[in-house]
Amino acid sequence: MRTPVSDYLDEVLHACDADDGEVADYIPELAKADPDRFGIAVATVDGEVYSAGAVDVEFSIQSISKPFTYALAIADQGLEGVLEHIDVEPSGDAFNEISLEPSTGRPRNPMINAGAIAAHAMVAGDDADTRTSRIIELYSRLAGRELSVDEAVFDSELGSADRNMAIAYMLRTVDRLDDDPPDVVRGYTRQCSVSVTAVDLARMAAVLAANGVAPDGTKILDTAVTRQVLSVMASCGMYDAAGDWLTTVGIPAKSGVAGGLIGVLPGQVGIAVFSPRLDRHGNSARGVRVFERLSRDMGMHMMEGTEAGRSAVRAASEHDDELRVYEVAGDLRFVEAERVLRELTGEPEGDRLVVIDLHRVHRINDVARRMLLEGIRRLHLDGHPVRLVDPEDVLPDPHAGEGYVPEVFDDAKAAIKG
Ligand code: GLN
Protein backbone atom coordinates (compact mmCIF):
# COMPACT_ATOMS: atom_id res chain seq x y z
CA MET A 1 0.00 0.00 0.00
CA ARG A 2 1.22 3.51 -0.74
CA THR A 3 0.80 5.70 2.33
CA PRO A 4 -1.95 8.29 2.01
CA VAL A 5 0.03 10.66 4.27
CA SER A 6 2.51 11.65 1.55
CA ASP A 7 -0.32 12.01 -0.96
CA TYR A 8 -2.08 14.30 1.44
CA LEU A 9 1.09 16.42 1.81
CA ASP A 10 1.34 16.62 -2.01
CA GLU A 11 -2.20 17.89 -2.10
CA VAL A 12 -1.45 20.53 0.56
CA LEU A 13 1.65 21.58 -1.39
CA HIS A 14 -0.41 22.25 -4.49
CA ALA A 15 -3.23 23.94 -2.64
CA CYS A 16 -0.83 26.40 -0.93
CA ASP A 17 1.28 27.17 -3.97
CA ALA A 18 0.82 30.91 -4.61
CA ASP A 19 3.72 33.28 -5.28
CA ASP A 20 3.06 36.19 -2.96
CA GLY A 21 5.83 37.57 -0.75
CA GLU A 22 9.47 38.47 -1.34
CA VAL A 23 12.72 36.63 -0.85
CA ALA A 24 14.85 38.24 1.89
CA ASP A 25 17.57 40.40 0.42
CA TYR A 26 19.14 42.18 3.40
CA ILE A 27 21.57 39.25 3.43
CA PRO A 28 22.81 39.39 -0.22
CA GLU A 29 23.38 35.63 -0.50
CA LEU A 30 19.76 34.90 0.44
CA ALA A 31 18.50 37.03 -2.45
CA LYS A 32 19.92 34.40 -4.80
CA ALA A 33 17.52 31.71 -3.55
CA ASP A 34 15.16 30.16 -6.08
CA PRO A 35 11.84 31.66 -4.90
CA ASP A 36 9.77 28.79 -6.29
CA ARG A 37 11.28 26.09 -4.13
CA PHE A 38 8.66 24.55 -1.89
CA GLY A 39 8.77 21.50 0.37
CA ILE A 40 6.95 20.04 3.36
CA ALA A 41 8.30 17.42 5.75
CA VAL A 42 6.56 15.82 8.71
CA ALA A 43 8.52 13.69 11.19
CA THR A 44 6.85 11.59 13.85
CA VAL A 45 8.34 11.28 17.33
CA ASP A 46 9.36 7.69 16.51
CA GLY A 47 11.34 8.75 13.45
CA GLU A 48 9.05 8.24 10.45
CA VAL A 49 9.34 11.06 7.90
CA TYR A 50 6.73 11.98 5.28
CA SER A 51 7.45 14.61 2.70
CA ALA A 52 6.38 16.39 -0.46
CA GLY A 53 8.22 18.73 -2.80
CA ALA A 54 11.71 20.16 -2.37
CA VAL A 55 12.70 18.55 0.89
CA ASP A 56 16.32 17.72 0.05
CA VAL A 57 17.30 21.25 -0.94
CA GLU A 58 19.68 22.88 1.53
CA PHE A 59 19.12 26.38 2.84
CA SER A 60 20.35 28.25 5.91
CA ILE A 61 18.55 27.61 9.18
CA GLN A 62 18.61 31.32 10.17
CA SER A 63 16.30 32.13 13.10
CA ILE A 64 15.06 28.55 13.40
CA SER A 65 18.38 28.05 15.17
CA LYS A 66 17.21 30.28 18.03
CA PRO A 67 15.03 27.84 19.98
CA PHE A 68 17.74 25.17 19.85
CA THR A 69 20.50 27.49 21.03
CA TYR A 70 18.18 28.73 23.78
CA ALA A 71 17.72 25.08 24.81
CA LEU A 72 21.48 24.62 25.06
CA ALA A 73 21.91 27.85 27.05
CA ILE A 74 19.32 26.58 29.56
CA ALA A 75 20.95 23.16 29.70
CA ASP A 76 24.32 24.83 30.39
CA GLN A 77 23.32 27.65 32.75
CA GLY A 78 20.02 26.51 34.26
CA LEU A 79 16.70 28.20 33.61
CA GLU A 80 17.06 30.75 36.42
CA GLY A 81 20.42 31.91 35.11
CA VAL A 82 19.08 32.36 31.60
CA LEU A 83 15.91 34.14 32.74
CA GLU A 84 18.05 36.66 34.58
CA HIS A 85 19.43 37.77 31.22
CA ILE A 86 16.59 37.07 28.77
CA ASP A 87 12.89 37.53 29.44
CA VAL A 88 10.05 35.46 27.90
CA GLU A 89 7.54 38.17 26.95
CA PRO A 90 6.32 38.53 23.36
CA SER A 91 7.72 41.81 22.09
CA GLY A 92 5.28 42.62 19.31
CA ASP A 93 8.35 43.96 17.52
CA ALA A 94 10.12 42.87 14.37
CA PHE A 95 12.81 40.20 14.77
CA ASN A 96 15.72 42.64 14.51
CA GLU A 97 14.34 45.43 16.67
CA ILE A 98 17.05 47.23 18.61
CA SER A 99 15.25 47.20 21.93
CA LEU A 100 15.48 46.06 25.52
CA GLU A 101 12.98 46.00 28.37
CA PRO A 102 13.21 49.50 29.79
CA SER A 103 13.00 48.45 33.45
CA THR A 104 15.40 45.50 33.49
CA GLY A 105 17.55 45.99 30.41
CA ARG A 106 16.88 42.41 29.34
CA PRO A 107 16.04 41.40 25.78
CA ARG A 108 12.32 40.69 25.74
CA ASN A 109 12.57 37.09 24.56
CA PRO A 110 15.06 34.64 23.02
CA MET A 111 13.31 34.50 19.62
CA ILE A 112 14.13 38.06 18.57
CA ASN A 113 17.74 38.80 17.64
CA ALA A 114 18.57 40.65 20.88
CA GLY A 115 17.56 37.65 23.00
CA ALA A 116 19.04 35.14 20.57
CA ILE A 117 22.42 36.87 20.56
CA ALA A 118 22.38 36.91 24.37
CA ALA A 119 21.39 33.21 24.42
CA HIS A 120 24.19 32.35 22.02
CA ALA A 121 26.68 34.01 24.38
CA MET A 122 25.32 32.02 27.34
CA VAL A 123 26.21 28.67 25.81
CA ALA A 124 29.20 27.23 27.67
CA GLY A 125 32.58 27.10 25.93
CA ASP A 126 36.10 28.31 26.65
CA ASP A 127 36.15 30.46 23.58
CA ALA A 128 33.84 31.63 20.82
CA ASP A 129 34.76 28.75 18.50
CA THR A 130 34.09 26.05 21.09
CA ARG A 131 30.76 27.64 21.84
CA THR A 132 29.75 27.64 18.19
CA SER A 133 30.96 24.06 17.67
CA ARG A 134 28.90 22.88 20.64
CA ILE A 135 25.85 24.59 19.17
CA ILE A 136 26.30 22.99 15.74
CA GLU A 137 26.95 19.65 17.42
CA LEU A 138 23.59 19.88 19.17
CA TYR A 139 21.77 20.76 15.94
CA SER A 140 23.44 17.77 14.28
CA ARG A 141 22.39 15.36 17.03
CA LEU A 142 18.82 16.63 16.77
CA ALA A 143 18.80 16.30 12.97
CA GLY A 144 20.43 12.88 13.11
CA ARG A 145 23.23 13.81 10.69
CA GLU A 146 26.28 16.03 10.68
CA LEU A 147 25.39 19.60 9.74
CA SER A 148 27.80 22.31 8.64
CA VAL A 149 27.95 26.03 7.99
CA ASP A 150 27.24 27.43 4.52
CA GLU A 151 30.33 29.65 4.31
CA ALA A 152 28.93 31.79 1.49
CA VAL A 153 25.85 32.68 3.55
CA PHE A 154 28.03 33.25 6.61
CA ASP A 155 30.41 35.64 4.80
CA SER A 156 27.51 37.42 3.20
CA GLU A 157 25.63 37.96 6.45
CA LEU A 158 28.70 38.91 8.46
CA GLY A 159 29.49 41.51 5.83
CA SER A 160 26.12 43.15 6.46
CA ALA A 161 25.68 42.49 10.18
CA ASP A 162 25.73 46.10 11.35
CA ARG A 163 22.37 45.83 12.97
CA ASN A 164 23.20 42.68 14.93
CA MET A 165 26.51 44.26 15.87
CA ALA A 166 24.60 47.26 17.21
CA ILE A 167 22.39 44.92 19.22
CA ALA A 168 25.41 43.12 20.69
CA TYR A 169 27.10 46.39 21.71
CA MET A 170 23.83 47.56 23.22
CA LEU A 171 23.66 44.32 25.28
CA ARG A 172 27.23 44.90 26.38
CA THR A 173 26.49 48.42 27.62
CA VAL A 174 23.75 47.11 29.94
CA ASP A 175 25.88 44.21 31.22
CA ARG A 176 23.90 41.56 29.42
CA LEU A 177 26.89 40.36 27.43
CA ASP A 178 30.22 39.42 29.02
CA ASP A 179 32.00 38.59 25.79
CA ASP A 180 33.41 40.60 22.96
CA PRO A 181 30.44 41.75 20.80
CA PRO A 182 32.10 41.03 17.40
CA ASP A 183 33.00 37.51 18.60
CA VAL A 184 29.45 36.86 19.69
CA VAL A 185 27.92 38.20 16.47
CA ARG A 186 30.35 36.06 14.49
CA GLY A 187 29.26 32.95 16.40
CA TYR A 188 25.59 33.87 16.20
CA THR A 189 25.93 34.43 12.44
CA ARG A 190 27.60 31.03 12.06
CA GLN A 191 24.73 29.39 13.93
CA CYS A 192 22.27 31.10 11.57
CA SER A 193 24.25 29.94 8.52
CA VAL A 194 24.03 26.22 9.27
CA SER A 195 22.75 24.43 6.18
CA VAL A 196 19.66 22.26 6.59
CA THR A 197 16.89 20.63 4.56
CA ALA A 198 13.21 20.57 5.42
CA VAL A 199 13.68 16.94 6.49
CA ASP A 200 16.46 17.95 8.91
CA LEU A 201 14.25 20.63 10.40
CA ALA A 202 11.27 18.28 10.74
CA ARG A 203 13.47 15.80 12.58
CA MET A 204 14.84 18.50 14.88
CA ALA A 205 11.31 19.68 15.59
CA ALA A 206 10.19 16.10 16.28
CA VAL A 207 12.77 15.78 19.07
CA LEU A 208 11.20 18.83 20.71
CA ALA A 209 7.81 17.17 20.23
CA ALA A 210 9.13 14.08 22.01
CA ASN A 211 10.23 15.94 25.15
CA GLY A 212 13.82 15.91 23.96
CA VAL A 213 14.01 12.20 23.12
CA ALA A 214 15.49 11.18 19.75
CA PRO A 215 13.80 8.36 17.81
CA ASP A 216 16.52 5.94 18.96
CA GLY A 217 15.56 6.63 22.57
CA THR A 218 18.50 8.92 23.43
CA LYS A 219 17.49 11.75 25.73
CA ILE A 220 19.06 14.82 24.10
CA LEU A 221 17.26 17.56 26.02
CA ASP A 222 15.60 17.58 29.45
CA THR A 223 11.82 17.64 29.54
CA ALA A 224 11.87 20.92 31.50
CA VAL A 225 14.06 22.46 28.79
CA THR A 226 11.81 21.42 25.89
CA ARG A 227 8.76 22.66 27.77
CA GLN A 228 10.38 26.07 28.20
CA VAL A 229 11.48 26.22 24.56
CA LEU A 230 8.06 25.23 23.21
CA SER A 231 6.31 27.74 25.44
CA VAL A 232 8.50 30.53 24.13
CA MET A 233 8.01 29.34 20.55
CA ALA A 234 4.25 29.41 21.10
CA SER A 235 4.24 32.95 22.46
CA CYS A 236 7.12 34.58 20.56
CA GLY A 237 8.18 32.33 17.68
CA MET A 238 6.41 34.27 14.96
CA TYR A 239 7.58 37.74 16.00
CA ASP A 240 4.94 40.41 15.56
CA ALA A 241 2.54 37.84 14.05
CA ALA A 242 2.69 35.64 17.17
CA GLY A 243 -0.83 36.35 18.42
CA ASP A 244 -2.41 35.85 15.03
CA TRP A 245 -0.46 32.62 14.62
CA LEU A 246 -1.41 31.26 18.03
CA THR A 247 -5.10 31.83 17.41
CA THR A 248 -5.30 30.60 13.82
CA VAL A 249 -2.68 27.83 13.79
CA GLY A 250 -2.09 27.08 17.45
CA ILE A 251 1.18 25.20 17.02
CA PRO A 252 4.48 26.30 18.66
CA ALA A 253 6.59 27.46 15.73
CA LYS A 254 9.70 29.25 14.54
CA SER A 255 10.48 30.85 11.21
CA GLY A 256 13.73 31.82 9.51
CA VAL A 257 14.44 34.45 6.83
CA ALA A 258 15.77 31.86 4.38
CA GLY A 259 12.20 30.54 4.15
CA GLY A 260 12.22 27.72 6.68
CA LEU A 261 9.38 27.34 9.14
CA ILE A 262 9.02 24.66 11.81
CA GLY A 263 6.09 23.69 13.99
CA VAL A 264 6.06 21.31 16.92
CA LEU A 265 2.99 19.43 18.02
CA PRO A 266 3.91 18.14 21.47
CA GLY A 267 3.79 14.38 21.73
CA GLN A 268 3.02 13.98 18.04
CA VAL A 269 5.06 15.43 15.21
CA GLY A 270 7.63 17.94 14.04
CA ILE A 271 6.70 19.75 10.83
CA ALA A 272 8.91 21.81 8.53
CA VAL A 273 8.12 23.85 5.45
CA PHE A 274 10.63 25.47 3.12
CA SER A 275 9.63 28.24 0.74
CA PRO A 276 11.79 31.39 0.46
CA ARG A 277 9.22 34.10 -0.24
CA LEU A 278 8.41 35.91 2.99
CA ASP A 279 5.36 37.81 4.15
CA ARG A 280 5.66 41.26 5.73
CA HIS A 281 6.52 39.76 9.14
CA GLY A 282 9.47 37.87 7.70
CA ASN A 283 7.72 34.48 7.85
CA SER A 284 7.53 32.15 4.84
CA ALA A 285 4.29 33.08 3.07
CA ARG A 286 3.55 29.60 1.75
CA GLY A 287 4.80 28.13 5.02
CA VAL A 288 2.18 30.06 6.96
CA ARG A 289 -0.53 28.84 4.57
CA VAL A 290 0.59 25.23 4.89
CA PHE A 291 0.41 25.42 8.65
CA GLU A 292 -3.02 27.04 8.58
CA ARG A 293 -4.20 24.24 6.35
CA LEU A 294 -2.58 21.40 8.35
CA SER A 295 -3.89 22.77 11.61
CA ARG A 296 -7.41 22.96 10.21
CA ASP A 297 -7.43 19.62 8.37
CA MET A 298 -5.76 17.62 11.07
CA GLY A 299 -7.20 19.25 14.18
CA MET A 300 -3.71 20.23 15.31
CA HIS A 301 -4.55 23.46 17.13
CA MET A 302 -3.22 22.83 20.61
CA MET A 303 -6.10 24.63 22.28
CA GLU A 304 -8.52 22.15 20.74
CA GLY A 305 -7.43 19.62 23.34
CA THR A 306 -7.17 15.93 22.77
CA GLU A 307 -10.15 13.90 23.74
CA ALA A 308 -9.86 11.92 26.92
CA GLY A 309 -10.08 8.15 26.44
CA ARG A 310 -13.78 7.57 26.66
CA SER A 311 -13.94 4.07 28.06
CA ALA A 312 -11.01 4.37 30.39
CA VAL A 313 -12.70 2.17 32.96
CA ARG A 314 -15.48 -0.37 33.13
CA ALA A 315 -16.66 -2.41 36.06
CA ALA A 316 -17.05 -6.02 34.97
CA SER A 317 -18.68 -8.81 37.06
CA GLU A 318 -21.38 -6.34 38.15
CA HIS A 319 -23.47 -8.57 40.36
CA ASP A 320 -20.83 -10.49 42.15
CA ASP A 321 -20.97 -10.18 45.94
CA GLU A 322 -17.56 -11.68 46.40
CA LEU A 323 -15.52 -9.65 44.02
CA ARG A 324 -15.57 -6.84 41.55
CA VAL A 325 -13.23 -6.46 38.60
CA TYR A 326 -12.48 -2.98 37.23
CA GLU A 327 -11.06 -3.10 33.73
CA VAL A 328 -9.03 -0.06 32.80
CA ALA A 329 -7.86 0.69 29.24
CA GLY A 330 -5.75 3.31 27.45
CA ASP A 331 -3.06 5.72 28.61
CA LEU A 332 -3.81 7.27 31.98
CA ARG A 333 -3.34 10.96 32.66
CA PHE A 334 -5.26 13.18 35.06
CA VAL A 335 -8.60 13.03 33.22
CA GLU A 336 -8.56 9.28 32.73
CA ALA A 337 -7.41 8.62 36.28
CA GLU A 338 -10.23 10.83 37.51
CA ARG A 339 -12.66 8.55 35.67
CA VAL A 340 -11.17 5.50 37.30
CA LEU A 341 -11.49 7.12 40.73
CA ARG A 342 -15.06 8.14 39.96
CA GLU A 343 -15.90 4.54 39.12
CA LEU A 344 -14.18 3.33 42.28
CA THR A 345 -16.23 5.73 44.43
CA GLY A 346 -19.22 3.52 43.56
CA GLU A 347 -17.62 0.72 45.55
CA PRO A 348 -19.39 0.49 48.94
CA GLU A 349 -17.37 -0.03 52.12
CA GLY A 350 -16.82 -3.69 52.94
CA ASP A 351 -14.48 -6.59 52.39
CA ARG A 352 -15.41 -7.45 48.82
CA LEU A 353 -12.32 -8.25 46.76
CA VAL A 354 -11.47 -5.50 44.26
CA VAL A 355 -9.43 -6.46 41.20
CA ILE A 356 -8.07 -3.56 39.14
CA ASP A 357 -7.14 -4.91 35.73
CA LEU A 358 -4.47 -2.78 34.04
CA HIS A 359 -3.48 -5.20 31.29
CA ARG A 360 -4.85 -2.88 28.62
CA VAL A 361 -3.07 0.18 30.02
CA HIS A 362 0.24 1.08 28.43
CA ARG A 363 1.27 4.23 30.20
CA ILE A 364 0.43 5.99 33.43
CA ASN A 365 1.83 9.46 34.02
CA ASP A 366 2.97 10.67 37.41
CA VAL A 367 -0.23 12.38 38.53
CA ALA A 368 -2.38 9.43 37.36
CA ARG A 369 -0.11 7.06 39.25
CA ARG A 370 -0.49 9.03 42.45
CA MET A 371 -4.26 9.22 41.98
CA LEU A 372 -4.54 5.49 41.38
CA LEU A 373 -2.42 4.61 44.41
CA GLU A 374 -4.48 6.96 46.56
CA GLY A 375 -7.64 5.21 45.32
CA ILE A 376 -6.14 1.86 46.25
CA ARG A 377 -5.20 3.18 49.68
CA ARG A 378 -8.74 4.35 50.29
CA LEU A 379 -10.25 1.07 49.11
CA HIS A 380 -7.94 -0.65 51.57
CA LEU A 381 -9.04 1.68 54.40
CA ASP A 382 -12.66 0.89 53.48
CA GLY A 383 -11.90 -2.78 54.16
CA HIS A 384 -11.26 -4.11 50.63
CA PRO A 385 -8.43 -6.39 49.68
CA VAL A 386 -7.14 -5.03 46.35
CA ARG A 387 -5.37 -7.01 43.62
CA LEU A 388 -3.77 -5.63 40.50
CA VAL A 389 -3.48 -7.22 37.08
CA ASP A 390 -0.36 -5.62 35.64
CA PRO A 391 1.61 -7.87 33.29
CA GLU A 392 3.48 -4.93 31.70
CA ASP A 393 4.43 -3.38 35.03
CA VAL A 394 2.81 -0.06 34.17
CA LEU A 395 2.37 0.62 37.88
CA PRO A 396 5.69 -0.48 39.37
CA ASP A 397 6.14 -0.51 43.17
CA PRO A 398 2.47 0.04 43.92
CA HIS A 399 3.00 1.20 47.51
CA ALA A 400 -0.35 2.70 48.33
CA GLY A 401 0.64 4.27 51.65
CA GLU A 402 0.17 3.05 55.22
CA GLY A 403 2.32 0.09 54.33
CA TYR A 404 -0.31 -1.33 52.00
CA VAL A 405 0.91 -2.95 48.80
CA PRO A 406 -1.69 -4.72 46.65
CA GLU A 407 -0.78 -8.12 45.23
CA VAL A 408 0.08 -8.06 41.54
CA PHE A 409 -0.88 -10.75 39.00
CA ASP A 410 -0.22 -11.35 35.32
CA ASP A 411 -3.81 -12.00 34.32
CA ALA A 412 -7.31 -11.48 35.65
CA LYS A 413 -7.98 -15.19 36.15
CA ALA A 414 -4.98 -15.55 38.44
CA ALA A 415 -5.95 -12.40 40.32
CA ILE A 416 -9.48 -13.68 40.94
CA LYS A 417 -8.16 -17.06 42.12
CA GLY A 418 -5.55 -15.39 44.35
N1 GLN B 1 20.55 35.66 10.80
C1 GLN B 1 19.35 36.43 10.69
C2 GLN B 1 19.51 37.76 11.40
O1 GLN B 1 20.06 37.79 12.47
C3 GLN B 1 18.21 35.65 11.26
C4 GLN B 1 16.92 36.41 11.22
C5 GLN B 1 15.74 35.55 10.91
O2 GLN B 1 15.84 34.44 10.40
N2 GLN B 1 14.57 36.08 11.15
O3 GLN B 1 19.12 38.78 10.90
What are the low-pLDDT stretches, counting only 5+ consecutive residues below 50? none
Can you tell me the CATH class of the largest domain?
A: Alpha Beta
State the major sheet: 5 strands, antiparallel
The CATH superfamily name of the largest domain is DD-peptidase/beta-lactamase superfamily
Strand fraction equals: 5-15%
Q: What's the overall geometry?
A: elongated
- Unique bound compounds: glutamine
What's the rounded overall pLDDT mean? Answer: 93
Helix-strand makeup class: alpha+beta
CATH topology of the largest domain: Beta-lactamase
CATH architecture of the largest domain: 3-Layer(aba) Sandwich
* Order of adjacent strands in the largest pleated sheet: 3-2-8-7-6
How many domain regions?
2
Per DSSP, the total helix count is 15
Characteristic key phrases:
418 residues, elongated, 5-stranded antiparallel beta sheet, 5-stranded mixed beta sheet, 2 domains, Beta-lactamase, binds glutamine, alpha+beta, 15 helices, Transcription Regulator spoIIAA, single chain
Structural summary, described in words:
With 418 residues, the protein is α+β, with helices and mostly antiparallel strands. It has two domains: 295 residues, DD-peptidase/beta-lactamase superfamily (Beta-lactamase, 3-Layer(aba) Sandwich); 105 residues, Transcription Regulator spoIIAA, CATH 3.30.750. It has 15 helices and 14 strands. It has a five-stranded antiparallel sheet with strand order 3-2-8-7-6. It has a five-stranded mixed sheet with strand order 10-11-12-13-14. Helix 4 packs across helix 8 and helix 5 packs parallel to helix 8. The model has no long low-confidence stretch (mean pLDDT 93). Glutamine binds next to loops.
